[in-house]
Amino acid sequence: MLNFTLQNPVKVVFGKDTIARLAKLVPAGSRVLVTYGGGSVKKNGVLDQVRLALSGFAVTEFEGIEPNPRFETLMKAVDLVRQDKIDFLLAVGGGSVIDGTKFIAAAARYQGTDPWDLLKGAPLTEALPLGCVLTLPATGSEMNMYAVVSREASHEKLGMGSPLLFPLFSVLDPQTTFSLPPRQTANGVVDAFIHVCENYVTYPVNSPLQDRQAEAILSTLVEEGPRVLANPEDYAARANVMWCATQALCGTLSAGVVGDWSTHGIGHELTAFYGLDHAQTLAVVLPGVWRHRFEAKKEKLTQFGRRVWGLSGDAETVAFDAILRTEAFFEGLKIPTRLGAYKIDATEAASKIAERFAQRGAHLGEHQDLGPAEVKDILLSRA
After folding, report:
1. Which of 57, 70, 136, 181 is surrounded by the most beta carbons within 10 Å?
2. What is the pTM of this model?
3. For position 38, what pLDDT does the model report?
4. Residues of the domain holding 32
5. For 42, what's the count of Cα atoms within 13 Å in the CB-facing half-sphere?
6. How far apart are the C-alpha atoms of 121 and 329, rounded to whole Å?
7. CA–CA dist 169, 9 (Å, integer)
8. Domain contains 5
9. Which residues of 257-289 are buried (b: 16+ CB within 10 A; e: fewer)?
10. Are residues 131 and 166 in the same domain?
């Protein structure tokens, strides 16, 4: 096992009717900006619950944070924060709203010229405090210190992270997910599944506890994903998926192991250029990465195939069949795994994205051996 430091200060309030506890979770006397996306939190009553819980606070609302939150939109919220002297942010939504709110928290206190520089590695020394009400389990942003933001003008999608961006608390009521459309539900399952895989399907470092924690989450998602799609108001299934998504990226699975994250790196560029849902990009790219790095990942792919998919046979066969079973799982959730299904020309995408990685001098993967040429090959294989 590798050396690690692990600290996660997020207070998780999980279960039925927990939004009412916001009144005691938000620091007394706060001037609160409530951020959210489209109309879903209005239609399903979540926003009304939030408003009721915060009736004793000075509250301003900011609506319109997009899936794959845009820098241009978020900067409007930053202006509002400064105008209304906001001192606490409350994100109500899924990972995009939470990520966007983390950026608002950072940008509102940034003293540099262009807050986009925060996504390019500029140091973050101060941020507004924030909390979350999760309505779409997927990214794990409710219990980690990371955010990903897109900039429409430059077709970029970049990430940032800082301990200053941990939420103070996150309210997780599975009932808020009952009304999610099937596509968003499936996206969440796939996103969480691949978050686990990026830390797990690398190479062995003698970390049996982390491996079995990862396998438990993967196995639970395999069981519960189809269940929530078949019965959207199955509270137990919704609760299990929600907790899996949170646990997938809260830091415990990455402690003491090596991560890959090439699937995410490539996937972000597919979103930036073509606007695909985050989970859709991951479902396309992951099998390609695994096939391209088959020999380097074979030992963990074999373990994954035996423990999660229940496969038997020689290592080569089990490892390859594990990839096929994973693709079939995503397809069964109605998340296509080929670029052609999204009407994207693989040759064009491969050239654009490889060129971008060449410009950045970027190398991906647990061995940092995926360069522009390898990225191009991976995308060409996903036509």
Report:
1. 136
2. 0.95
3. 82
4. 11-176
5. 9
6. 36
7. 8
8. no
9. beebbbbbbbbbbbbbbbebbbbbbbbbbbbbb
10. yes
* CATH number assigned to the domain comprising residue 34: 3.40.50.1970
Percentage of residues in the chain with pLDDT exceeding 90? 96
Q: Angle formed by the axes of helices 294-307 and 278-292, to 10°?
A: 110
**pLDDT tens-place string over residues 165-197:** 999 999 999 999 999 999 999 999 999 999 999
Structure tokens at 294: 């088959």
pLDDT over threshold 90, residue 348:
yes
**What does the block give as tokens for 187?**
């996206």
Is pLDDT at 113 greater than 90 in this prediction? no
Distance CA 291, CA 340 (A): 18
Tokens of 358: 């060449």
Domain final residue pick, 176, 200, 222: 176
Residue 39 has pLDDT above 90, yes or no: no
pLDDT 10s digits, 249-268: 999 999 999 999 999 999 99
State the pLDDT at residue 213: 98
